């Protein structure tokens, strides 16, 4: 997937400025696709040149005008083509998993702090996702199944929540194994 497609989806959900788009990436799209502010602005410029987005100047009081981006007809066509292309299941490149396997040739207990650091990061991400779900998809203003866009946003978020929970369970297993093996001076004997 190209960043262009993630931007098109976000702009179809709601037009906005480059800054607003960056905030959306931090808040929701970042669940499955990350991009820096610089990357977003660079791609917006290219998409404007390619005719995929429309730009209008929005006057602001006491501040410079801002650019508001929206998806053009050509952008909708590009997204539709991409949506209909097959996509291959992604393979995982997981540096920590290679380190865990490599610990068999060193001191397994030496990897505990690194796994704990990863566990803390995934725990924090899960808390962030759960807070977003609570804020955006539960309570009085929650969608009641009538908005397909909201339903699909929520199912992607639920996938992120499930992934983080699975990763935390795996990291707990890894930690238990490393601690057990750390008690054995030579786990291969």
From TrEMBL:
Residues 92-179 form the Transcription regulator PadR C-terminal domain. It holds the Pfam family Vir_act_alpha_C. SUPFAM superfamilies: Winged helix' DNA-binding domain (SSF46785). InterPro entries: Tscrpt_reg_PadR_C (IPR018309), Tscrpt_reg_PadR_N (IPR005149), WH-like_DNA-bd_sf (IPR036388), WH_DNA-bd_sf (IPR036390). Residues 7-80 form the Transcription regulator PadR N-terminal domain. This is PadR family transcriptional regulator.
